[in-house]
């Protein structure tokens, strides 16, 4: 915080989130692969608080557990993240009261944020702090104008334009859809004043809760300086109460992620149909084609073409790869690899450089060494495929006997003819050749031919005889 004033941040995250109609606690809902509360923590920590208190209650163990895991360094070091427990959810005012005992310093300011506003930014909070200090206000709040005030609290101003109270949506009889100034749920209050006002809140309202918003009217009545900080872009303070609000928030976060990628030299062909999780990295000069999803812990190298219609989950893709209409999960792909269209790389594959996986291949728990080709309609499971191996169309590693999975080893340079069934456990030696249509259940030595199929018989004149019989 600028100046010498101490900044404490309180994030409210104890509410039940009933409007989400879910078993997942609201602030842990994922937005582009990251929990809602993490975005709020990010923005809060950017404001460099001296202390940060998260108020938890409903499913509080899960929420505090999540934060302790994801923000471990901040839970031990500076600024310290602490948890305040609100055992009963008696309202936002009561939640802040629960946090107060964690803030021993009496001189500083307390910034209050809601855990369900994931679009707030550190930049906005910094401007808010600067304005609060510049105005020498006792209590500041962020307000914004929206076309439909919905469930937001309405900011009420007097004839001179001074804010004098906030009226909650549930306490007004006609909640008309008209452009209105609303309360963003973000406040900065002198610690001392907060401690004085909170105990005086009452539950005399439609919800029967201790509304934090009532401190505005109380502060004005006692002659304290209340400063409304008007923020132009209402989307930044968007609150998530239901899943429609969540969908909007996710769309906004997605566009921020895509913009960041574009500015780092990645081409996104269709901003409306590209889904990239928070934290996914894509190298420059890569192109993301439409309908593509990059999720989880994923990294894409430079110069790749991913998509159209591909889904890369928790995987690392090297430079110059081309992955079309395909799914890659929990795997590692080297450089210059072509996959698809329509292939499925299932978990635990390590595919080295210059490998081609063609159409309709399914690959699971395999190591595929460089230069191998798996062109069409094959299933490779629990296998080692040596370098420059050629897997013909329709090859199947028969890895499951109904009880156990078995391994197949195909040494470098081997040629597996079309429609071969390789019954595991099996080792096919270096440069070995397996004739098309073979069902192979014994190891094949290096440089040998394995042929395991019925011999072909040609019956001369057979068709003509048959025709005659018919007549
Ligand atoms: C609140 C504000 C409203 C504002 C809106 C902005 C009040 C009374 N109303 O309404 O003026 O426009 O936010 O988004 O403050 N929480 C607790 N303990 C509780 C109740 C809530 O920790 O007992 C937490 C929730 O987990 C949530 C936050 O406080 O993160 C806000 O609560 P919510 O019920 O979503 O309030 P709104 O109805 O959105
Ligand atoms: Ca809310």
> Helical stretch count?
9
**Gyration radius, in Å:** 32 Å
What do we call the CATH homologous superfamily of the largest domain?
Spore Coat Polysaccharide Biosynthesis Protein SpsA, Chain A
The unique ligands bound to this protein are: uridine-diphosphate-N-acetylglucosamine, calcium ion
The largest pleated sheet is described as:
14 strands, parallel
Structural class by sheet pairing and helices: alpha/beta
Structural domain tally: 2
CATH architecture level-2 label of the largest domain: Alpha-Beta Complex
Strand content: 25-35%
Low-pLDDT segments, ≥5 res: none
Morphology call: elongated
The total count of strands amounts to 39
Stated plainly, the CATH topology of the largest domain is called Spore Coat Polysaccharide Biosynthesis Protein SpsA, Chain A
Multimer state = single chain
Distance separating the two termini: 101 Å
Could you walk me through the main structural features you see in this protein, from its secondary elements to its overall organization?
The chain contains nine helices and 39 strands. It is an alpha/beta fold and 471 residues long. A hairpin with a 5-residue loop joins strand 8 and strand 9. It folds into two domains: 7-237, Spore Coat Polysaccharide Biosynthesis Protein SpsA, Chain A (Alpha-Beta Complex), CATH 3.90.550; 258-450, Hexapeptide repeat proteins (UDP N-Acetylglucosamine Acyltransferase, domain 1, 3 Solenoid), CATH 2.160.10. The model has no long low-confidence stretch (mean pLDDT 96). Bound molecules: uridine-diphosphate-N-acetylglucosamine and calcium ion (CA). Calcium ion binds at residues 114, 116, 239, 241.
């Amino acid at each position: 915080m600028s100046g010498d004033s101490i900044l404490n941040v309180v994030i409210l995250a104890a509410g039940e989130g009933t409007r989400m109609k879910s078993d997942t606690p609201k602030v842990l809902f994922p937005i582009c692969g990251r929990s809602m509360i993490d975005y709020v923590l990010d923005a809060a920590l950017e404001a460099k608080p001296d202390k940060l208190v998260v108020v938890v209650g409903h499913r509080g163990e899960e929420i505090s557990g999540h934060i302790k895991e994801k923000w471990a360094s901040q839970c031990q070091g500076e600024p310290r993240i602490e948890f305040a427990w609100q055992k009963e959810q008696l309202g936002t005012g009561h939640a802040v009261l629960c946090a107060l005992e964690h803030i021993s310093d009496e001189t500083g300011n307390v910034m209050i944020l809601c855990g369900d506003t994931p679009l707030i930014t550190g930049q906005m909070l910094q401007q808010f702090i600067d304005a609060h200090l510049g105005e020498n206000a006792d209590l500041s709040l962020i307000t914004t104008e929206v076309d439909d005030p919905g469930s937001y609290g309405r900011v009420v101003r007097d004839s001179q334009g001074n804010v004098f109270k906030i009226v909650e949506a549930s306490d007004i009889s006609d909640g008309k859809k008209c452009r209105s100034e609303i309360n963003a749920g973000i406040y900065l209050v002198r610690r001392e004043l907060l401690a004085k006002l909170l105990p005086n809140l009452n539950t005399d309202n439609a919800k029967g809760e201790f509304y934090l918003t009532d401190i505005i009217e109380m502060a004005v009545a006692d002659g304290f300086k209340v400063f409304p900080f008007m923020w132009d872009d209402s989307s930044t303070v968007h609150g998530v109460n239901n899943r429609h609000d969540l969908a909007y928030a996710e769309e906004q976060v997605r566009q921020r992620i895509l913009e960041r990628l574009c500015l780092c030299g990645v081409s996104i062909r269709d901003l409306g149909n590209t889904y990239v999780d928070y934290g996914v990295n894509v190298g420059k000069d890569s192109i993301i084609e439409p309908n593509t999803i990059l999720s989880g812990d994923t990294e894409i190298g430079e110069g790749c073409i991913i998509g159209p219609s591909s889904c890369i989950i928790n995987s690392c893709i090297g430079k110059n790869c081309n992955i079309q209409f395909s799914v890659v999960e929990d795997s590692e792909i080297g450089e210059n690899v072509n996959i698809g269209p329509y292939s499925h790389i299932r978990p635990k594959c390590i595919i080295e450089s210059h490998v081609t996986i063609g159409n309709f291949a399914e690959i699971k728990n395999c190591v595929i060494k460089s230069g191998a080709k798996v062109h069409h309609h094959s299933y490779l499971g629990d296998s080692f495929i040596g370098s420059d191996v050629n897997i013909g169309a329709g090859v199947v590693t028969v890895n499951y006997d109904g009880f156990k999975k078995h391994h197949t080893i195909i040494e470098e340079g081997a040629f597996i003819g079309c429609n071969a069934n390789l019954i595991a456990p099996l080792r096919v030696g270096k440069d070995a050749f397996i004739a098309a249509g073979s069902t192979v259940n014994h190891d094949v030595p290096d440089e040998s031919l394995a042929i395991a199929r019925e011999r072909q018989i040609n019956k001369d004149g057979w068709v003509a005889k048959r025709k005659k019989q018919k007549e």
